[in-house]
Structure formats: C-alpha cells, structure tokens
Amino acid sequence: MNWDGWIPPLLLASSLLPGLIIFTLAEEQVRLRTLLNLGGALVKLALVGWMLWGVYHGHHYEMRLALLPNLELVLRADPLALLFITLSAVLWLVTTVYAIGYLEGSPHRSRFFGFFSLCVTATVGVALAGNLITFLIFYELLTLATYPLIVHRGTEAARRAGQSYLAYTLGGGALLLLGTVWLYTLTGTLEFTPQGILDNLGAEHHPTLIMIFILLIAGLGVKAALVPLHGWLPQAMVAPAPVSALLHAVAVVKAGAFGIMRVVYDIFGIEFAAGLGVLRPLAWLAAVTVFYGSLRALFQDDLKRRLAFSTISQVAYIILGVAIVGPLATIGGLVHLVHQGLMKITLFFCAGNLAETLGIHKVSEMDGVGRRMPWTMAAFTVGVFGMIGAPPVAGFISKWYLGLGALEADQGWVLVVLAGSSLLNAAYFLPILHRAWFRQPPESWPKERSFGRQETAWMLLLPPLLTAAMALAVGLLATLPFSPLEWARLVAQREFSQP
Amino acid sequence: MAAPFIDLPWGIILILLPLAAAMAAFLWPSMAKAVGLVTAVAVVVAVVGLGWQLLDHGLYRHAIGGWGAPLGIELYADGLSLLMLMATALVGFAVSLYAAAYFKAEDAARFWPLWLVLLGALNALFLAADIFNLYVTLELVGLAAVALAALTGSATALGAAMRYLLANLLASLAYLLGVALLYHGFGSVDIAILATRIAPAPVAFAALGLITTALLLKTALFPLHFWLPPAHASAPAPVSALLSALVVKASFYILLRLWLELFAPLGAGAGIDALLGLLGAAAVLWGSVQALRQSRLKLLVAYSTVAQIGYLFLAFPLALASSVAVWSAVAYLALAHALAKAAMFLAAGNLLRFGGHDRIADLDRAVQRLPLTTAAFALAGVSIMGLPPSGGFVGKWLLLEAALTQGRWGLALVMILGGLLAAAYVFKVLGYAFTPAAVAHKSTAVPASMEWAALLLALAAILLGFMAPLLLPLLGIGEPFGANGAGP
Fold first, then answer.
1. Complex ipTM, two decimals?
2. How many CB pairs under 8 A join A and B?
C-alpha cells in the first residue's frame, strides 16, 4: 500500500490534534502545553521536509474524500502548495516560541494556543486544497479560527475589531461562495489544474467568466487586503503581537494572496485570464494598493498600524506579480509570498518586543531605542532594508524579478510603481531607523521591564533574530536548490510549460 | 447485513414504545426519568433497525392488523421518513439527557409523560401513510407541544402557550376541512390512492388552499410566524429545543409529502410554488433581521428559527426543474437545522441557568467560564450560518447550485444574505461572550451532562457536513422525490 496519500492529512493532524488537546488543558499545565505546541510544530516541519524532498523527486501526495455529489475534498501537495506550506510550517514554529515567551503569565493561554493551532491547521488546509471547494472550506475555517485570537483580550475595542474583521471576511467569503457555485454550474469541476480548467468554454461564456473572476477576486481580495477591501487589517491590530505577526506574515493575508494565485493560475489559467482581459485591471488595482498602503503608512505614529499599512502595500506586490503575464513576474510574485512573510514577521516580532520590554507603541517614542535593545533593532533593520528592497536582503530578489517580468511583458509602468513604492517604503521606514540608532534615548522608557543582562527575554529575542537571518539567507543564497527562488521557478515552469 | 436488526417490526415499536413509556412515566412519576432515558435510547436503536430494513428491502410498508388501505391503517417509510425519524431520535436522545439533569421533581413528573407522548406522536407522523392519520398524529403533536410550552406555569409562558394553542387549533380545523374535501371529492384518504385520482377540480384547489395554509401556520412561515417566538422563547430550554428542532419540522414534513404526492402539479400551475418561495425569502430576511435586533438570547434563537424555516420554502420554486437535488437539499437542511437549533437552545438554556439571565450584552466572559456551552453555541452557529464544514453548508450548497443553474439570482442572493445575517446574530452573541459584563452576577453551576448534550448535538451538526455521500443515497430509498427531475 502506498502511504504517500496519508501525508497531507497527517500534516493537518500535526497541528489539529495538539490544538484540540490544548483546549482541554488547565492554565497551569504550561509544560505539557509547550511540549504539545513545539512537538506539533516540529512534526509538521519534518513532514514538510519529507514532502519537499518527495515532490522534488516527482512523488505525488494526494488524498480524496467524497464530500458532495460529484465533489470531493482533495488534499494535494503540488509545488505551489509546498511553497506556502513550508513558509507556514517554519513560521509557525518560530511564532509559537515567540508566543510562549510573549504570553508568559497572561490569562487564557490554553484557549489562545488552541485557536492558534487551529489557525495554522486552516492555513495548511488552504495550501493543500486541491480544488476550489476544499479551498473554500479551509478559507472559511481560517476566518472562524482567527476570530477568537483577535478578540482574545476581551476588551470592548477587541470585540469591535472582531466584528469588523468578520464583517469583511465573511462578506468576502460569501462572494467567494457565490463565485464558486456559479463556476461549478458552468464547468462541473473545480479541480485546480495547471493552466486552468476553462479552455473548452466557448466565447459566449466570457462575460459570465469575467463576472465570476470579479466575484472570486473580490472574495479573496478581502483577506489579501486589496484596496478598497483592506479596512479590517489596521483595526485587527488590537490582537496580541504574535497574532498580528501570524496574521500578516502567514495566515490571513497570505491565504487571500495564495487564493488569488490559485484562481489565476489553476482555475482560469494565466493565459486564458489574460485573454479575458481581467489581469490588467487586477494589476492596476494592485498598483493602487501598493501606493495607497505606503502613503497611509507614512502618516501612522502607532508602530503596529504603520506596519499594518505596510503589509497592505507589500502583499499587493504579490498580486502584481500574479497579474503580469510572464514567467519572470510570476516568479517574482511567488517568491515574494515567502520573502514578505519572513521580513514582515521579523518587524512584528520586534514591535512586540519594544511593547513588551519598554512599553513603546509609537514611532515617536523610539528615540535611541537601538542602544537599549541593539539586537532587536538589528533584526528590525534587516527587515526594513528588505522591505525597501535593498540587496542582499530577500525583498531585493522579489523586486528584481517583478521588474524584469514587467519589462518582459512590455509593461514599463510597473517599474515606476516599483521605484515609487521603494521610495515611499524608505520614507516611512528610514526615519524609524534614524530615531532608533542616532537619537538620544529618553531619561526613562514608558514601561520598562528588566531582564538582567539581556535586553529582553530570550524567547522574544531569538525568533526575530532567526527570521531576520532567514530573510538575509534566502536573499544571499537565492540560487541554491530548495531556496524559495528556485522553488518558485519550479512552480512557474509548471504553469508556463508548453504542452 | 446484521441479522438481529432485520426481523422486528421497527415501525410499530417506534410508535408504541414511547406511548407505553409515557403511560408508565405518568403512572409512576418516581420512575419517569429512568423510563424516559431508556426509551430515548431504545428509539435510537429502533431507528437504526428500521434503517437496516430500508437498506435491505427498500420501501417499508406495514398494514396494521393485516388490514391494508383503503380500510385499515398503514405505516409507510422511505428515505425521507427515515431522515426525519433520525433527526427525532438524535435530538430526542440529547434532549432527554439534558432534561434528566434540568427538571427537578415536580416539573420532571410533568415533563416526561408529555415528552414521551410527543416522541411517539412524532414517530407516528413520520410513518403515517394517509392524510387522516397525518391529521391525528399532527393533532397529538400539537397538543403535547402546547402542554410542554406551558410547563413552567409562569404568566408569560401561559400567555404564549395560549396563543400557540389557538394558532394550532385554527390550523387543525383548516387542515381537517381540507382532508374532508379531498375525501369527499376523490373518495380516499390514502396518499398513494389519492395521487392517482386527484385532478385539477375546484374541490382540489380548495383543499390545497386550506391544507397548505394550515400547515404554513403550524410551520410558522412568515407572516404566520407570530406565535412562534414567544412560545419558543418562554418555554423551558429542553422544550424550546424540541419545539424548534422537531415540532415545526413535523408540519413541514406533511406539507412536503402532500406537495410531492398530490399538490405539485396543481400548485405549480397556480403559481403557489412561487408564492411559497417569496414567503420563504421574506422569512429568511425578516427573521434574521429580527433575530439581530433581539437583546435576549432565547428570543434571538427563536427568531433564527423563523429565518431558517424560510430556507426550506426557498426550494419550492426551484423544484420543478431539479426535483431530487432540491428536495434532498431541503431534507438535509431540515436535519441540520434540527440538530443545530436544538444545540443552540440547549446552550442558551445553560447560559440562562449559569448567569440567571439571558441578556446578550451581559454574557460576561462565558467563553472562559462555560467553554463547552459556548463551543456548542458556536459550532451550532456555524451550521446555521451555512459555513463549511457543516450540515447547513451541504444543504445550502445544493440549493445554491440549483438556484444558479436555473438562473434564479434573487433566490441565490437571499440565501447568501441570510447566511451573512445569521453570522451577524451568531457572532453578536459570541462577541459578548468574550467581554466582561459591567456588573458581575452570581453564577450557578451547570451540570456537565447539560453542557455535553448541547455540544454533542452541535458536533453532530458539524459532522453532517461530511456525511452527504452516506446520507443522500439513504434519502433516496423509495424515491420520495421522484425518479429524476420531473417530480413524483
């Protein structure tokens, strides 16, 4: 018997089961909870490593389960899925360590980590989904699993943020459902297939297909925080820092961006979509989002809000890469999915450290903080240079390929977007660095906690250092096999290979 | 197949056992609880037995005392009956478990006999083969339900129960009149025989109008829902669960049966299917908006029932073109709603007992203090909203697919909008379950079995999302919705 089919469900179980057990634990059972958390994350990572190796060598990992008449629940690990899964598995482990340190001594931790694990399970499910209905199921599960994390603190502000989050995401989910059913009534299948499933539909269906495309992208664009559907993201910042980190780097926004990739590449097929003429408006929308996010970020004094608007802008790069037709731009978009995750999670970890250690929440309070917390700010600096796109940090690779791809596709205007947004990125990030490294620290910090000789607890410091190092490494070592860039190449080949 | 299940007359057992148990519980109140629990378990077993029989032999027909139609009483079961019996058995089992801990001495002595009568009557209704027996069982269900609603004897409960009783009696009268007209016009009360004789004559239309209106009133379809929210909200929690999950489904089941066998060709010609669809849409929107406006948890859940009933009626205008898929969706929705709504009412009952009130804004960190109950409410809510994976999602997907295939965008949008509104009212409750109340209240402990009963039902509603490949073929036994596409 071939056991390969069991690996995808095992991958889900590696976070689902620990999560369910954690719900039943008492608050004081810290050790068992930590063991389950880290054990699950490590098992998941090992499984992902196994599958990476297998897929690279042509293995096929797929599980099917009848769900509805003619529709199946399909879990499949193709190269694109693995790109996203690897990112989630790695960052889940790191974020778990961080969250354990961050939430030490705070109430309701069993509940928190339970939903945290469910959230990762849903994300992995989104990645593994082999057809649109499976994707939809996990996409909605993700919404439900993140809600308790956003309202975790139980304040009135948290409750309101939660309601707003749901209003956006469930609304988006409804559009997605409508689009999915409509598509199904036309095609009779929802299977993700390289180069799409719509080739045999005649031209008389094109107006309908355009409507479906709009519905699907609008539904997914909510989570990907495309303007004007981005309103929930800055509000969701009331959640604890590890949640923001996970939301921004891995789970929610990425699920949206990943879904747009699936729809464009594996439902419509990029060339078919280009023929429909829907990709150019999508590219414009992404460009607008890039600028809008950056412009709004300029004027935020709250550090987490500034990072949130920066996310809106950075995730739109991914969409931009998707919307430009051509292998190079595709590679740029795909690889940014990973790169943005590494860089943005670093920044959020650092912001959390500042808040936890010194009580700093605002950019205007960050004067001289580099001297008090040099390691944290060093990691922050790496993240910032990556966001701006300075070599050799990962962000440079993404922008380079996006730029090349734009030229290849004769869309020179994209270069203007890239250059302009890099300038804006610099404009809202560099002043932070200037304050942190070159200004005099104040007499006292807003709310300082002492950690002896260390600048902060090691469980808070290690994760950002690690992710910053990874952000550097994937930039420096981009041409090695199994680097995100090389993997993105593999995915792109599949989409553009000539039959 | 497993031999021990085959040979017993499970249909008879399903009816007589609860009625006998009701008698026993009435005569020996001290034993009532034990009798009730054993019966609830036995009914589950009997439904499984009947299911085996159906799988083996297809349709189930049993002529009581050997006298078949048109003279005697016949029992009849196909996939649709089986599904309704399953819903009754499952909900009945969980509610019995819950009630065993919920009711104290005197209330318990009143609750168990009435509930067992209701159980037997419901089973008999889902097994009845002629419209007169349907009337008798429906009447029995109605009276038991009214008595249960009045159980606490409080002024609000009595007022609500009185309104419920009057609505019920009016409906029964109209239904009986319709039955008499059909008997007069076509000389039989057996559904199968009537189906061969009925013709578009004035008498048939009059019967159609009377019977349909009566059943709509009992099912509480908008705008005939006025009696439902107060009655369901003021009853004790286990009773609310039974009323919302099962009793309204009983009259809907009769309507569906009669529509499928007798009225579909008449009704569709007269545009009644479109009218029912329209009322269903109005019910979905109106019920949901009203639910959203409530500040009391039990009223919110009760209005949610008004909305969810509406979904069942959205199917009528769609059924002409794809009968099997649409009615399967409706049956699935009915089952999912039965499980989820019972779970919701039981959870609401827990919250009410725990905090001593059901003001939504003062749920006071229920998510932390009563986690199992909150989980039950949330999971049931997922099915009510129609989010995946859940029984509600399966039903909604099938219905949505039919609507879009036929280009019925209005109906599709109502379904989507209803789901969003449901999410709004469910999460209104859940949001306040995270926040602390302004003034802390004293809390009363809730027995574990009451929490688990709610959670089990909610989990069943979620699990239903994965059961479609199993249940849809089961539902097709005896082809209750016609062979394919063209109606019965």
1. 0.91
2. 80
Residue B63 has pLDDT above 80, yes or no: no
B interface test, pick of A149, A163, A185 with most B CB neighbours within 10 Å: A185
Parallel/antiparallel/unpaired status of strands A71-77 and A61-68: antiparallel
The amino acid that residue B266 corresponds to is L
Q: Residue B257 is encoded by which pair of tokens? A: 């049966």
Task: With a cut of 80, say whether residue B482 has pLDDT above it.
Answer: no
Contact B349, B243 (CB under 8 A): no
Asked whether the beta carbons of residue B427 and residue A166 sit closer than 8 angstroms, the reply is yes
Judged by CB atoms closer than 8 Å, whether chains meet at A171 and B420 is answered as: yes
Which residue in the set B368, B387, B419 is minimally distant from A108, CB to CB? B368
| Interface contact B368-A162, CB threshold 8 A | no
Give the whole-angstrom CA distance, residue B325 versus residue A69: 9
Q: Which residue of B has its CA nearest to A72?
A: B469
Tell me the mean pLDDT in the region A13-37. Answer: 90
Does position A359 have pLDDT exceeding 50, yes or no?
yes
Which positions in chain B touch A163 (Cβ < 8 Å)? 427-428, 431
CB contact under 8 Å between B325 and A69, yes or no, is yes
- For A74-104, write each residue's pLDDT tens digit: 999 988 999 999 999 999 999 999 999 888 8
Of B325, B404, B431, the CB nearest to A159: B431
Residue B240, CA distances (Å) to A160, B172, B236, B287 in order: 31, 21, 6, 17
Q: Which of B149, B155, B88 is nearest to B119 (CA)?
A: B88
pLDDT at B200 over 80: yes
Chain B residues touching residue A171 (CB < 8 angstroms): 420
Return the structure tokens found at B210.
Answer: 């009377």
User: What pTM was computed for the model?
Assistant: 0.93
When pLDDT is averaged across residues B373-387 and rounded to a whole number, the result is 94
Smallest CA–CA distance, residue A154 to chain B, in Å, is 5
B401 closest CB neighbour out of A67, A166, A181: A181
Contact A141 B388 (CB under 8 A): yes
Spatial separation of the C-alpha atoms in residues B324 and B418, rounded to whole Å:
23
Distance from CA of B101 to the nearest CA of A (A): 23
Q: Closest partner residue to B365 among A148, A154, A156, by Cβ? A: A154
Is a pLDDT exceeding 60 seen at residue B2? no
Reduce the secondary structure of chain B to three states and give it as a string.
CCHHHCCCCHHHHHHHHHHHHHHHHHHCHHHHHHHHHHHHHHHHHHHHHHHHHHHHHCCEEEEHHHCCCCCCCEEEECHHHHHHHHHHHHHHHHHHHHHHHHCCHHHHHHHHHHHHHHHHHHHHHHHECEHHHHHHHHHHHHHHHHHHHCCCCCHHHHHHHHHHHHHHHHHHHHHHHHHHHHHHHHCCCEHHHHHHHCCCCHHHHHHHHHHHHHHHHHHCCCCCCCCHHHHHHHCCHHHHHHHHHHHHHHHHHHHHHHHHHHHHHHHHHCCHHHHHHHHHHHHHHHHHHHHHHCCEHHHHHHHHHHHHHHHHHHCHHHCCCCHHHHHHHHHHHHHHHHHHHHHHHHHHHHHHHHHCCCEHHHCCCHHHHCHHHHHHHHHHHHHHHCCCCCHHHHHHHHHHHHHHHCCCHHHHHHHHHHHHHHHHHHHHHHHHHHCCCCCCCCCCCCCHHHHHHHHHHHHHHHHHHHCHHHHHHHHCCCCCCCCCCCCC
- % of chain B beyond a pLDDT of 90: 59
Average pLDDT for A461-474: 93
pLDDT tens digits, one per residue of A307-342: 999 999 999 999 999 999 888 999 999 999 999 999
Q: How confident is the model at residue A412 (pLDDT cuts 50, 70, 90)?
A: confident
Instruction: Indicate the pLDDT class of residue A390, thresholds 50, 70 and 90.
Output: confident
